[in-house]
From TrEMBL:
Coiled coil: none annotated. It comes from Paraburkholderia steynii. This is NAD(P)-dependent dehydrogenase, short-chain alcohol dehydrogenase family. Keywords: Oxidoreductase. The keyword Oxidoreductase applies. GO terms for molecular function: oxidoreductase activity. The keyword Oxidoreductase applies. Transmembrane segments: none annotated. Pfam families: adh_short_C2 (PF13561). Belongs to the short-chain dehydrogenases/reductases (SDR) family. CDD domains: SDR_c (cd05233). The lineage of its organism: Bacteria, Pseudomonadati, Pseudomonadota, Betaproteobacteria, Burkholderiales. It comes from the Bacteria.
Length: 254
């Protein structure tokens, strides 16, 4: 069977760790050249090196997705080096601190919205024109299961992920006539360094509460939502656009 992304060129943001790093590996395994982007040069270069060590082709472009000019450069590098952009996984995001809505720090609110929402819009506005020129392309934006429901003490994160779904659906409507598909991925809790070292380290009781909220009885490993994103970006999902695909262990089912 033909590889899902044979001959393709794919951008992955937030590729330094977690779902992004796993997705870079899966895209490469499925035949794509992968352009990795992350705000951390060390993590991004390490992730790209891992792809190459596994037999894939990859480059790393340091990118802060909140800065339009850096995202413009990211897309330009992909086009100038490889001549096309067939797919993109806009995955960069942060969780922000935990605090009740009225107590949330304004600077932290702005930071979460900038990365999680403006960052994805920046990616869309530079990726889409290249795909429109080619007459086809596929984009997946990382939202969250919390893009559908609320959560205690995560107002900025939850608001940003709800907004990502709205942005995704609007972009899907705008560009479906041009052959460009835009979908969102809604992971549940994923066992990433971000979650384990920052969220659960300070809130150990939260780990048990959230695990019980996933009917499968565990958290996802990074490669599980990564596989879903790679499929959504492929031609095997050719009639899927404007969709929010849950990969959440049943979290939203109850």
């Amino acid at each position: 069977m033909k590889a899902l992304h044979e001959g393709g060129v794919v951008i992955v943001t937030g590729a330094g760790g977690g779902i992004g790093r796993a997705a870079a590996q899966v895209f490469a395994r499925e035949g794509a050249i992968v352009v990795l982007a992350d705000v951390s040069r060390t993590a991004g270069e390490e992730a790209a090196h891992q792809v190459v060590q596994s037999g894939g082709e990859a480059i790393f472009v340091p990118t802060d997705v909140t800065k339009g000019e850096e995202v413009r450069r990211l897309v330009s590098v992909a086009i100038e080096k490889y001549g096309k952009l067939t797919a993109a996984f806009n995955n960069a995001g942060i969780e922000g601190p935990l605090a009740p809505t009225a107590d949330y720090d304004e600077a932290e609110w702005d930071r979460v919205i900038q990365v999680n929402l403006k960052g994805i819009w920046n990616c869309l506005r530079f990726e889409i024109p290249e795909m429109v020129k080619a007459g086809k392309g596929s984009i997946v934006n990382t939202a969250s299961a919390l893009g559908q429901v609320g959560a205690w003490s995560m107002p900025a994160y939850v608001a940003s992920k709800h907004a990502v779904l709205g942005l995704t659906r609007t972009a899907a409507l705008d560009y479906a006539p041009h052959g460009v598909r835009v979908n969102a991925l809604m992971p549940g809790v994923v066992e990433t360094p971000m979650m384990m070292s920052r969220v659960f380290k300070d809130n150990p009781a939260l780990m048990d509460i959230l695990k019980q909220a996933h009917p499968i009885g565990r958290f996802a490993q990074p490669d599980e939502p990564a596989e879903a994103a790679v499929w959504l970006c492929s031609e095997r999902a050719s009639f899927v656009t404007g969709e929010a695909l849950a990969c959440d262990g049943g979290y939203l089912a109850h």
